[in-house]
Design brief:
Layout lengths: L1 H14 L22 H18 L8 E7 L4 E7 L20 E2 L4 H15 L26 H5 L14 H4 L31 H8 L17 H14 L3 H10 L34 H4 L2 E2 L1 H14 L14 E2 L5 E3 L4 E5 L10 E10 L2 E8 L4 E8 L4 H32 L1 E5 L7 E7 L3 E9 L2 E2 H9 L7 E13 L4 E11 L22 E2 L2 E2 L2 E5 L4 E4 L4 E6 L13
Antiparallel strand pairs: 1-2, 1-10, 3-4, 5-6, 6-7, 7-8, 8-9, 9-10, 11-12, 11-21, 12-13, 13-14, 13-15, 15-16, 16-19, 17-18, 19-20, 20-21
Helix pairs in contact: 1-12, 2-11, 3-7, 3-8
Length: 568
């Protein structure tokens, strides 16, 4: 008994910390019922009403939008709006639908990065090579010999944001009216916005400009948004593939993924969503194509998101495409390659478990857009907007309404399914053993061991309080998924780990460092096996604890606690 107690004490002391709500808390749902899932269906009905009510405001009369939600396998929801106020001389598509085309602007950066990962896996480039290895003509103040391809893709290069756009001199007839000194254009480049978009800028223009400008930060010191990062990466792709950027995107991504409407060349107006007023529909972006040129639809983008959801950890050796690369300014905001990642604990009604959104937004005159992947739920949403004013306001509201409604409905559906699949009392298959576990699940606590008896020892009542429990705190034993299987080929034998979690303090008495949590999943071993490993074999309806040498089956029969056999 003392050996058992020592072993259990080791387990508990190794796993408990000031962590509260681990994420993910469940395996990625597959959404086999699709849009027929009752919780999602209810949310979709609510969404349609909320979206239509919002966009009916007269100040949004020139805004059109397309929204589509997809799982890993199929689209689940779509909603479209055609602006009442349209361009009379060039109306574009008469009715917005899933095939309607928008400029997706900086979402293009994800395609450029995907192309980069393909080439890294093919061995034609190394993400940790300096960009100067591929563009040796880069010289000047910026230390390009210290800026890797990975740093460029992760917004960590420290180089300026733009070189041919966003100049106040081009926006205001007389800048002296807002306190700026007189200036002229004689020393400025002669392309893109500085030349009324004709001609577009080329590689020579870009390199020349960079060679005469200073960095914002040292490489890898601070993250800051830069379009130039991806213009350089596009040039690298052209040099290692001996193709134009457009040819490479078409042959490596658009065609293989069957994104038949997606293009870099300006498409005809058949599917075009053309907002009233000035817009970027016809602008040739030249060397800036890799940072923001692509035209696409929600149907094609859902295809793209499905591919990402199922391949994000298998695109290039050693790369999980969803992992952050650096901090951004917001507490829960991070840069990836080139994702804009947001983690929030404010979205779930019954829990402060963080939910992760892997996003990329884009904006050009006349167009704003955002894709948001929700990896824990196996979902992705595309929002494309065409407008002439209030564009950011429209996108932000659509993003808030859609993502919050969808995540909350998905959460309800997930826990209802987990309750059916996991909850209950499990008893040792060998009925001579006095070992059992009761699992209870909820959104607020996850899947929790409500009781755990091993060889007649009540683990929760006798062992935890004696050898670990802090009388000032409450705790629970929670199961968390590793998202791995004992049989990966057949996707059988779900591997979970038991973690001891504290209950979160709120209000007075909560210390600053209460939020400090370092993930520590692999705890004590017994005879070389992890003590906190649990394996679910759903086909057989059993739960296995390998280190405890016990297999348990869900049971409705009452236990006979007087039987006791020490496991050998």
């Amino acid at each position: 008994m003392r050996k058992t107690a020592f072993l259990l004490a080791s387990l508990i002391s190794s796993t408990l910390s000031t962590c509260f709500d681990p994420s993910p808390a469940f395996p990625v749902p597959q959404w086999h019922n699709g849009a027929k899932d009752k919780h999602l269906a209810s949310a979709f009905n609510s969404l349609r009403t909320k979206l239509d009510t919002f966009i009916s405001n007269p100040k949004y009369s020139a805004a059109s939008f397309s929204i589509e939600l997809t799982s890993q396998t199929s689209s689940l929801f779509s909603h479209f709006h055609t602006a009442p106020e349209r361009n009379a001389t060039r109306p574009g598509t008469p009715k917005v639908d899933g095939d309607s085309l928008y400029r997706i602007a900086s979402i293009t950066k994800t395609f450029t990065t995907l192309g980069l990962l393909y080439q890294a896996e093919a061995g034609t480039l190394n993400l940790d090579d300096p960009v100067s290895d591929y563009i040796p003509e880069l010289t000047g103040q910026i230390p390009f010999h210290d800026i890797t391809l990975r740093a460029l893709a992760s917004q960590l290069s420290g180089i300026p944001r733009d070189f041919a756009q966003s100049d106040i001199l081009l926006e205001i007839p007389d800048p002296t009216f807002i306190g700026l000194p007189p200036a002229d254009k004689k020393n400025l480049i002669r392309c893109d916005e500085y030349a009324d978009y004709d001609p577009p800028c080329n590689a020579t223009d870009l390199v020349k400009w960079l060679n005469h400008h200073a960095p914002l930060f040292a490489p890898n010191a601070e993250s800051t948004y830069s379009n130039l990062n991806f213009e350089l990466l596009g040039l690298v792709l052209e040099r290692v593939t001996n193709m134009t950027y457009e040819e490479y995107m078409q042959t490596s991504i658009f065609t293989p993924l069957k994104m038949s409407l997606t293009t870099i060349s300006t498409p005809n107006d058949t599917h075009a969503v053309l907002p009233v007023g000035d817009n970027y529909w016809d602008v040739d972006e030249g060397i800036q194509n890799p940072t923001g040129a692509i035209y696409s639809s929600t149907t094609d983008m859902s295809t793209y998101l499905r591919y990402i959801l199922t391949h994000y950890n298998a695109l290039a050796t050693g790369i999980n495409w969803f992992q952050p690369a650096s901090f951004a300014t917001g507490l829960g905001s991070f840069y990836g390659m080139p994702w804009e990642i947001f983690r929030t604990d404010r979205i779930l009604p019954e829990s402060r478990r963080p939910v992760t959104f892997v996003t990329k937004s884009g904006g050009l005159p006349g167009y704003v857009s955002r894709v948001s992947l929700m990896p824990e739920y196996g979902l992705g949403v595309t929002i494309l907007v065409a407008c002439n004013e209030h564009c950011g306001e429209v996108l932000d509201r659509l993003q808030e309404v859609v993502t919050v409604e969808v995540v909350r409905a998905a959460e309800e559906s997930v826990w209802e399914g987990l309750g059916v699949g996991y909850d209950g009392v499990y008893e040792a298959v060998d009925r001579e053993l006095n070992s059992s576990i009761e699992l209870v699940s909820s959104s607020g606590t996850g899947i929790v061991m409500n009781s755990f008896v091993s060889n007649g020892t009540d683990v929760l009542a006798e062992v935890v309080p004696k050898f670990w429990a802090d009388p000032r705190k409450s705790w629970r034993l929670q199961l968390v998924p590793t998202l791995l299987y004992k049989d990966e080929k057949e996707q059988a034998g779900e591997i979970w780990r038991i973690l001891a979690m504290y209950e979160r303090k709120e209000g007075k008495g909560r210390d600053v460092w209460d939020d400090f949590c370092i993930t520590d999943i692999d705890t004590a071993k017994y005879a070389g096996l992890p003590v906190n490993e649990v394996v679910f074999w759903h086909e057989e309806g059993v739960m296995e604890l390998p280190a405890w040498k016990v297999t348990m089956k869900q049971s409705t029969e009452p236990k006979n606690d007087e039987r006791f056999v020490v496991q050998q």
